[in-house]
Amino acid sequence: MLTPAGEVFYAEANKIITVALGARQKIAKMAAAESGELRIGFVSEQMAEPIAPFFRLFRDGHQTVELTFNAFTSIEVSRRIQSNEVDIGLGRRESLVRAEDIDWMFLYHDPFYFAVPEGHRLAGEKSVTFEQVKDETILIMSSESNPGFYDLVQRLYLSRGVTPLLNATTNDRIATIMMARIGMGIALLSKQFLGVYNFPDIRLVPLAEVDAFHDVGVAWNKRAANPMTLAFLNELKGYIAKNPISA
Q1: Is the model's pLDDT at 18 over the cut of 90?
Q2: Among 41, 115, 150, 173, who pairs with 86 as Cys (CB 3.0-4.6 Å)?
Q3: Residues 119 and 179 in one domain
Q4: φ, ψ (nearest 5 deg) of residue 222
Q5: What is the pTM of this model?
Q6: Residue 136 domain boundaries
């Protein structure tokens, strides 16, 4: 049986052990969060370009974490997020958020432009509306290759009571622009993609409609166990707050 002094000592010793165990657990959690791998999947490098400086900052601050980057189709990025093969997916909201367990953070708006061949009646316009292009053949990727964008274009037109004249046969954006260059129609694409190319025989004309843009952001699986995912999202949120991305 303990003396009064012994009981006090025993109680204090238990407190010290509890604090020490708690500290050990916290250190273990911090170590786990500062090591391992963060897998990032994106639909196109053009979408990732506005936050490329953040990737560098994040890597500098977490040098024990291995960052991996892979490009996939929007369908594949969404699937890999759901199956926990990708921790962070970068792309368009309508393409990636296809299940209840996927969450989303908005980064920026990416407005739509038409790639118009030189000599076309619209090539000299500063901007155009759906009314001005209702009789034009619109070139976009196929519904199999880019279902999110295909559905969005259909929705934009039909909400205005217009049935679009779509040529949606390609599986690649560059192929779509090639079709515009040889006069098969006008290609509808996003500014972020078109901005990195310079085709001398193509004019870029903005689509002047209030809803003609993509929401670009990052998606992740809410059930994911990777501790670095939350750290990445918190730091990205702070970065965007200080460095907003303009269209």
Answers
A1: no
A2: 41
A3: yes
A4: -65, -20
A5: 0.74
A6: 109-214
